Amino acid sequence: MMIRKTKKPNFKRQEWFRYKKLGETYRKPKGKTSKRRRYEARKPAMPAIGYRTPRNLRGLHPSGFEDILVCNVAELEKLDPSTQAGRISSTVGTRKKITMLEKARELKIKILNKGL
Hints:
Blueprint: E1 66-70, H1 73-77, E2 84-88, H2 94-107
Parallel strand pairs: 1-2
């Protein structure tokens, strides 16, 4: 189990603070004289290939486990406790959820949404 590296910069759109209608969602600067596009000093970082998450960590839960949706005890028993963690489906009722949590405790499986 590998832990994800530290936080990436929060990439925001150029001049997001100036015009409310632009929003914060990132868009690549395309202006001919744009200082940000030319990577001039004192400008916020732009997304680059070096910020990408390593392949073996992509799609993992921040805890480092693979997030698997489970609906019943049989699916819970199929999980590998060393690499996978269960997330109990929202359609499961309280009575069945309690039995699933007890079974997970027996099998030493991490449950991501205990919430009782």
